[in-house]
Specification:
five-stranded mixed sheet; 2 helices; alpha+beta
Amino acid sequence: MSSPLSWQLLEAVRTCLTRITPGNGYRTNAGATVELEPGQVRNDQDEFLAVVLEGMSAPLNPALRAIGRAVTVAIIAKVPSDRDNAQLRLHEVIEDVERAMQDQRSRFPQGTDFPKFASVERIPQADGLKWVGAVIRYTAHTRR
């Protein structure tokens, strides 16, 4: 039995993001660490991406309600705050994520829509955290 389409969608997003390396023409090396099971980020870790299912709901389009779900995928980007120009680096990671997600329809399983960019939201830096971050959201639909 294959895994749920929502999980396959997350795996496809992960595959797109692992391309983010300077050798592939990107500004950052954020693709070196892309997790589907995010945990605590070590203080010595460089850029980091986590791909998670943020939510599922009924599709806005009534024609899709009987056959599928609207899915929100959250890509959590983190950059060490003690590096020079950490905020600039975070913007570069965000740009790299958006570029890595372009024109990748062939990587997504049958029964899912190609994710569409929805938003970026800064993660407020809390006391004691040694990173700055953002949540980059994409939306898609899966069919049952």
